[in-house]
Request: fold
Amino acid sequence: MAQVFTDANLSEIINSGKPVVIDFWAEWCGPCRAIAPSIEELAHEYEGKVEIGKLDVDANTAIPEQYAIRNIPTILFFKDGALVDKHVGVASKSALATKIEALLK
Reply:
């Protein structure tokens, strides 16, 4: 299951030493709901290797502002604590898996 990321816990997670994937979403966002099953499946498939979670932009405003999130869904990819990739909009599970695999190299 995808983790719940918040303004309060995200800094610690990003600096955990594992790659991190953050899905910025909101309950009212149709495309966010469309991509949610893929995020959940990827979180299960990469459990223990990659920290994959969702950050609700309505409940958490500091982190979306910090990373200039203007559209959702936006997915950020971190490696060694640094932002290395970004995807805006809906993506296929396989496209996201390709980006996650790149984090593991």
